[in-house]
């Protein structure tokens, strides 16, 4: 019994360390292609805004829309909203990304320069 007490404190420390590292890894956002993502983000209605308790997700088109997920899930929730928007407003035509508005009118076209950009669009936005 005395022998187990000696290892109890290091075991708790190691357990909390592993749980913390796991939480950090799970809360990280997905890797993104910088050129494509920044271009699409200019037309996306969702943005992150600082608030006193952390971050909140706002919609530029709807001032009443504000989501305040906890800090652990904020980036996952933001990605979910972006992906939903992307499925409705992005189209891929012959190595060109077409960005549409709410009415289906073309707002911007982005010629894709590499296979990695096309793969990013397929994996991230699901189109």
Reading the helices and strands in chain order gives HHEEEHEEEH
Distance between the termini: 60 Å
Counted by DSSP, the helix tally is 4
Shape by Cα distribution: elongated
Summarize model confidence as the mean pLDDT: 89
- In the sheet with the most strands, the strands line up as 1-2-3
Radius of gyration: 21 Å
In terms of DSSP E residues, the strand content is 15-25%
Structure notes:
The protein starts with a helix and ends with a helix. The chain contains four helices and six strands. A three-stranded antiparallel β-sheet has the order 1-2-3, covered by helices on one side. The chain has a three-stranded antiparallel β-sheet with strand order 4-5-6. 47% of the residues lie in helices and 23% in strands. A hairpin with a 6-residue loop joins strand 2 and strand 3. The protein is α+β, with helices and mostly antiparallel strands and 127 residues long.
What are the SSEs and their pairings?
Elements: H1 2-27, H2 34-41, E1 46-51, E2 54-59, E3 66-67, H3 74-89, E4 90-93, E5 96-100, E6 106-111, H4 115-124
Antiparallel strand pairs: 1-2, 2-3, 4-5, 5-6
